[in-house]
Design goal:
The chain has about 325 residues and is an alpha+beta fold. It folds into 2 domains: about 200 residues, q2cbj1_9rhob like domain (Jelly Rolls); about 120 residues, Outer Surface Protein A, domain 3 (Alpha-Beta Complex), CATH 3.90.930. The protein contains 7 helices and 20 strands. The protein starts with a strand and ends with a strand.
Length: about 325
């Protein structure tokens, strides 16, 4: 049973009360649940490539652990974008019974044999952290590196929670009564993990600018503009004119989510989210459904009071902005 899946188009979460109740009962009985295939395969493969391109440095956690930690890069940014989703927060709150979640913060790190890496028993409690998440980012099988969970200083209560499959995750409890650690890794393959905490604060807000247009007594006037100003294009991004008939698709490493107040886009080139206003969100949704600017224009011309030439110009300008930021691409390019 798939409890939740993070995708480049948002997240898939079961809505049936009986299913949520099953996960909640499992969590409260064992203090953790497994989240198989948490990240969709396409995004997972992209993440693995970006992790390999990244730079690791040695890090010590005040006598608790040592590890190789990845400097924030595109994989780090995309994972934070995917997890920091209000629907994900609602799922975690429903399953664990924790307080209202404001944000998630994590890191990508490696534990390797022969480098002195270790992890000792600890609880991660700081008054702000609510629940922990550990995602396997190791494409190759490793030995050792098993998450263990127990009541404090009670070895008889210890649970071993192996998580050997690439893309699987474990959601586990943080409590004054519990502690956890990861056993030493053995053999040549390191254990690569994205791990962190759902927290009360800060609140992860997109600060969406809702530029809902004036209706002026009739159809609304579209305001098609990106929230952020255009920045110089990164090398390798084609800036040729987009044909209105060209099929446009979400680019590798890009993502978006519908917050309920508007669509937010993630650019793998900048590592940032960009909030769209009401009309921009409508244009984006239509583009993802239809694939061409021609089809978007045909629908929006009926919905908005605007000259066809103006609408076409604004749609082309917006699509060019998205392509410059690596959010969309022409299919096959």
């Amino acid at each position: 049973m798939q409890p939740i899946r993070l995708t480049s188009r948002g997240c898939d979460i079961p809505q049936e009360p009986a299913v949520l109740r099953l996960f909640r009962d499992q969590f409260h009985a064992h203090h953790y649940i497994r989240l198989p295939s948490l990240v969709e395969p396409g995004a997972l493969d992209w993440l693995a490539r970006e992790v390999e391109r990244g730079t690791f440095y040695e890090r010590e956690h005040e006598g608790i652990a040592t590890e190789s930690c990845l400097k924030p890069n595109r994989a780090f940014d995309l994972l934070h974008f995917l997890v920091n989703n209000r629907r994900v927060f609602d799922f975690v709150e429903a399953v664990t019974g924790c307080e209202r979640i404001g944000s998630f913060n994590g890191r990508i790190f490696r534990l390797a044999a022969g480098l002195g890496h270790y992890d000792s028993w600890h609880d991660d409690i700081d008054g702000n952290r609510l629940v922990a998440l550990s995602l396997n980012l190791s494409p190759q099988p490793y030995r050792g590196g098993i998450l263990q969970l127990r009541r404090k200083e009670d070895e008889a209560s210890r649970l071993d929670i192996p998580n050997p499959r690439f893309g699987d995750a474990v959601l586990f409890c943080l409590s004054d009564e519990l502690e956890h650690r990861v056993t030493n890794v053995e053999g040549p393959v390191p254990r690569t993990t994205f791990a962190g905490w759902f927290r009360k604060q800060p609140t992860y807000g997109w600060y969406l600018q809702d530029s809902a247009s004036d209706t002026q007594g009739g159809k609304p006037q579209p305001v098609l503009r990106p929230l952020a100003e255009d920045t110089p294009a990164s090398s390798g991004v084609d800036e040729g004119v987009i044909s209105p008939q060209a099929r446009l698709v979400l680019a590798d490493g890009a993502a978006y989510q519908d917050t309920g107040h508007g669509v937010v886009l993630f650019s793998p080139l900048t590592g940032h989210g960009e909030g769209l206003d009401t009309v921009g969100s409508r244009a984006w949704t239509l583009l993802m459904e239809s694939g061409t600017l021609d089809a978007v224009e045909w629908v929006m011309a009926d919905e908005y009071d605007v000259e066809p030439s103006v609408l076409q110009r604004d749609l082309l300008r917006l699509a060019s902005h998205w392509r410059r930021h690596g959010i969309i691409q022409v299919a096959g390019q």
